[in-house]
Structure formats: C-alpha cells, structure tokens
Design brief:
The complex is a heterodimer of chains A (about 110) and B (about 110). Chain A is about 0% helix and about 50% strand. Chain A contains no helices and eleven strands. In chain A, strands 2, 4, 5, 6, 9, 10 and 11 form a seven-stranded mixed beta sheet that branches. In chain A, strands 1-3-8-7 form a four-stranded antiparallel beta sheet, with no helix packed on it. Chain B has about 110 residues and is mostly beta strands. Helix content of chain B is about 0%, strand content about 60%. In chain B, the strands form two sheets. In chain B, strands 2, 4, 5, 9, 10 and 11 form a six-stranded mixed beta sheet that branches. In chain B, a hairpin with a 3-residue loop joins strand 7 and strand 8. Chain B is globular. The chains are: A mainly beta (about 110), B mainly beta (about 110). Chains A and B meet through strand 4, strand 5, strand 9 and strand 10 of A and strand 4, strand 5, strand 9 and strand 10 of B.
Amino acid sequence: NAGVTQTPKFQVLKTGQSMTLQCAQDMNHEYMSWYRQDPGMGLRLIHYSVGAGITDQGEVPNGYNVSRSTTEDFPLRLLSAAPSQTSVYFCASSYSFIAGNYTFGSGTRLTVV
Amino acid sequence: EDQVTQSPEALRLQEGESSSLNCSYTVSGLRGLFWYRQDPGKGPEFLFTLYSAGEEKEKERLKATLTKKESFLHITAPKPEDSATYLCAFLDRGSTLGRLYFGRGTQLTVWP
C-alpha cells in the first residue's frame, strides 16, 4: 500500500501565485485532514473532511480552499500565496476519527517569496 | 478554551536512562488522547490512543498512561533510535467531526 501520497515534496511560489497541493490515499479512509506545521507552533488544522462531498474548516482556514469529490483525493488550494503561508503541509487520513490513528503523508515544504 | 501543553520542550537522555514526557490538557470533555512520533523531515506516525483515566498502552520501550488532567509517555531504557519528536493530541467530546488538537511536541534526543 502506498498510504498517503503528497505532491509536490517541495515548492517555491511568488507572492500572489496560486497552486494546489495534492493528497491521495489508497486505504478507503473516510476522514482526511490538512495540517500546517510551523516552528514553535505545532500542527494546526486547516481543513478536514468526513467523506466525499463533505468538508469543514479547522483552526487556520483563511487563504485555503478544499474540496472532496472522491474518497481518495483531498487537494488543498492556495488562492493567492502570501509569505505567511510558508510552512510544511501535511495531509492525513483515518478510517475512524475516534480511534485517532491518522496516517500522515510525508509533507510538502512550501516557501512563498 | 481547549488546549494541550507538552513538557519539556526538549529532553536529552543517555542510552538506558529512563524518563517520562508529559502532556497536560484542558478540555470540556475528552473523547480521546493520542500520541504520535515524528522523525525529522517526515510526517507524524501514530503510536497510541487512550480513552479514559487509568488506561495504559505499551509498545516496546514506550508506555502511555492517562489521568483526568494529563498523559505521560514513559520511555524505559531508551535507545538512540528512539530519538524523535513526540506529539500528543486530543479529541474533544464536543467535536463530532474529528478535529484533533496537537501539542507542540517534546524533542527527545538519546545519545549513546
């Protein structure tokens, strides 16, 4: 099993550009989430989804959009990149949010200049 | 406001020197407390889930325990390969849609 696959691994954007971070899982998990990780801040939830067609905002949703058209894919869109969005982004999935055993991808390191 | 605090921020142990990491939480109702391990440049890896005070889980040299206000990750006779950042997270009972809240982590270094 591939688990959770994130692409790209690294990306440099100019301020104002838009892009989509891809996340795909092959475990048929209903629950998927996007986090950002910044030094000294820990993991912060951006958006999450409890199944195809259902998404909701987390702690830091501003500047990001998500959609969930299939169980497998959960892309994160940056609408107009800002230097404050420089971070490492992780996608995670789980079969049960109560169990808490999310499988994380290897991350996308994004730099906005 | 619900929150989770981990201490210490960093811990250096000599190989074989046992210790504990702390995760204290304030939450209106705890549905679950989770521990993860994160190696540099990688995503977190799930370790344990604890649901109620008094519960314990073990895996190799790691044992997680839970009280009504905090959780401990006990590391017995650690080895250099246990070096990593350990994260705890909680799920609020009021959260119906799986919003995990993470602490900032404890960076553990085990030297030979």
